[in-house]
Design brief:
Helix content: 40-55%
Strand order of the largest sheet: 3-2-4-6-7
Order of helices and strands: HHEEEHEEHEEHHHEE
Largest sheet: 5 strands, antiparallel
Number of helices: 7
Amino acid sequence: MDRCAEFRRWKAQCLGKADLSRKGSVDEDVVELVQFLNARDQFFTTSSCAGRILLLDGSINGFEVQKQNCCWLLVTHKSCVKDDVILALKKATSDTILKFEPFVLHVQCRQLQDAQILAVRSTHGLEVPLSHKGKLMVTEEYIDFLVNIANQKMEENKRRIERFYNCLQHALEKETITNSHPKIKEENNSSYTHKKKRKPEKAHSKCITEENDNKLENDDDDPGIGVIFPENY
């Protein structure tokens, strides 16, 4: 079986699996983007999250929270209000963290050149401890302040999703035009090979391949491309 046929088989198998996320479906804000990628021969998505605000109750180890060992007191993919957070905090029995997690998209790519179109990273997030051993360590005023910051990040996150989708469409359209002209494709491939020989580390840095982590509940064991927006994207 050739590589393309094997990729198609793998894609059909993965997309045919049940959605094992807590929600059980793709988030509304990224449905169109996910469908767009899955319609392309060279890509398929393995997991996604449009961005979310979380309140987690569990053990803290150097501010790192293992979500699989935590109680999810609150989770929303939309903006939230202080009262919802305060109400959820009443259920806390351990160390509670308020988090904002940005858009994440894990994508399998047929080859390295396909992955180069996608690979970007960011630290556009928020993670703040609120309680310790069930005792609230901050004021309601500070919680209100944090919720406003998280909501602002959520709104910015939505704008970044839209910009990323538009840029991705443009990049793939350009690639299609290039591939339809053999002479242009040959020149681009020659230029790519030349650059790779001169600075292989630079070419490597453009494609970030990683094991799917535990950030999303519907991740599988396959390696993917983690896509998160850069701060100035």
